[in-house]
């Protein structure tokens, strides 16, 4: 009698939560494409006033954040599978996890200074920043797909900014989306400024 092989959870249809995250990152790509349409290098690096971020700095900050967070998310997925922390959901998250994701959603009500490791350098060329931004979105979609079948609540990831913040894997992926919307909104405020060079 032939034994049936176990199905790899990553090959199953995506659970609704992860499907939603993929849709969010695709929407972020479309929003960024609209924001960047027709921008010159001068517009990309135009500053409203001293201390305010440019569109370039908003996107560079998101690239820096992605570079730091994605390996941690990927490691969390790998660790969850190795330890057998599997589940199909729906998953429940603690109040802090949910609050932290909501806090990052635009419109921004409370400003927060970026940790030093996340502060973007000024005057970045579009040719370096923009392709990397879209690569990061595709990697985040890959992360969401790879997390299918992992228990998104029990697997924890450590914030690269501070040891004080540990999030569930699912909320860590959600945080990337809300944080990106926050800074794309910020970049949109720059473009909508009456003094923005036309």
- Oligomerization state: single chain
Mean pLDDT: 92
| Largest sheet report | 2 strands, antiparallel
The termini sit apart by 73 Å
Unreliable parts: 1-6
What does this protein look like?
The chain is mostly helical. Helices cover 54% and strands 3% of the residues. It contains six helices and two strands; from the N terminus they run αααααββα. It has helices at 16-36, 41-44, 55-82, 95-103, 126-146, 169-191; strands spanning 156-158, 166-168. The protein has a two-stranded antiparallel sheet with strand order 1-2. A hairpin with a 7-residue loop joins strand 1 and strand 2 (166-168). Helix 1 packs antiparallel against helix 5. It is elongated, with a radius of gyration of 18 Å.
Explain the layout of strands and helices.
Elements: H1 16-36, H2 41-44, H3 55-82, H4 95-103, H5 126-146, E1 156-158, E2 166-168, H6 169-191
Antiparallel strand pairs: 1-2
Helix pairs in contact: 1-5, 1-6, 3-5, 3-6, 4-6
Task: Name some characteristics of this structure.
198 residues, two-stranded antiparallel ribbon, disordered N terminus
């Amino acid at each position: 009698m032939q034994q049936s092989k176990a199905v790899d959870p990553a090959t199953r249809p995506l659970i609704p939560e992860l499907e939603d995250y993929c849709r969010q990152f695709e929407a972020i790509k479309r929003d960024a494409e609209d924001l960047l349409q027709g921008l010159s290098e001068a517009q990309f690096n135009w500053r409203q006033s001293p201390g305010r971020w440019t569109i370039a700095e908003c996107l560079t900050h998101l690239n820096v954040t992605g570079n730091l967070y994605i390996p941690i998310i990927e490691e969390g997925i790998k660790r969850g599978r190795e330890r057998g922390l599997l589940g199909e959901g729906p998953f429940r998250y603690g109040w802090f996890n949910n609050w932290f994701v909501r806090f990052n959603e635009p419109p921004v009500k409370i400003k927060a200074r970026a940790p030093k490791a996340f502060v973007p350098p000024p005057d970045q060329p579009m040719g370096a920043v923009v392709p990397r931004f879209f690569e990061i979105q595709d990697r985040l979609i890959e992360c969401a797909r790879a997390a299918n079948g992992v228990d998104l609540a029990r697997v924890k990831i450590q914030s690269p900014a501070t040891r004080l913040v540990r999030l569930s894997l699912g909320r860590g992926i959600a945080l990337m989306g809300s944080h990106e919307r926050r800074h794309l909104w910020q970049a949109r405020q720059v473009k909508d400024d009456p003094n923005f060079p036309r």
